[in-house]
Amino acid sequence: MTVDPASAARPITVPGPRVDAGPSPAGTPHSPPGGRAAWLAWSIGVSVYILAVIHRTSLGVAGLDAAERFTIGASALSTFSILQVLVYAAMQIPVGLLVDRFGPRRVLLLGVLLLSLGQLAFAFSASFAPALASRAVLGCGDAMTFISVLRIAARWFPAAKNPLVAQLTGLAGMGGNLVTTVVLAQALHREGWTPTFTAIALLGVAVFALVVLFLQEAPAGPPVSAAAQAPRPAVGQQIRHSWREPGTRLGLWVHFTTQFPGNAFGLLWGLPYLVEAQGMSRAAAGGLLTLLVFSNMAFGLLFGRLLSRTARARMPIVLTVIAATSAGWAVTLAWPGGHPPLWLLVGIIVVMGSNGPASLVGLDYARSHNPVERLGTASGIANMGGFIGTMITLFGIGVLLDALTPGSGSGYSAEAYRWAFCWLYVPMAVGTLMILRLRRQVVAAV
Question: Mind listing the domains of the chain with CATH numbers?
Answer without folding.
Answer: 35-218+238-445 (1.20.1250.20)
